[in-house]
Design goal:
With 131 residues, this protein is an alpha/beta fold. It has four helices and six strands; from the N terminus they run E-E-E-H-E-H-E-H-E-H. The chain is globular and about 35 Å long.
Amino acid sequence: MLLPMDGRLDSVETTTSFVWIDDGIVHIETKGTPRTADSVSTTFGAVRDLLGTARMPALLDLRKRLPSDQDSWAIFIKNAQMFSAAAFVIDPDVHPRVDVYPEIINRMLIPFQVFTTEAEALAFLAAHKTP
């Protein structure tokens, strides 16, 4: 079930994530709850509903989530082009390695980087905001 957060029309809550738009950037914050391929797909569906046909950069805050598996990466890659750029914020203690996917996404799909702080991620995404 998708619910607006705090009555805001530019936000939604899924079973595993909070999603909102702020200053031209889509924020996706995981709750740290167990996820499935369906719940990840539901989150990206919620993002698509919020964005419509617009493309914005996306900040995915994964600090509360367990390391990504191949299914999660595949779902992200399938949906990546709805964004003008994307940045993951991770906890290096929880996510000691992120495989080769970020480099592949950055080279072939959209500008994409992984950061350990939200401030660094937002600075990267600011360069990819649409006017």
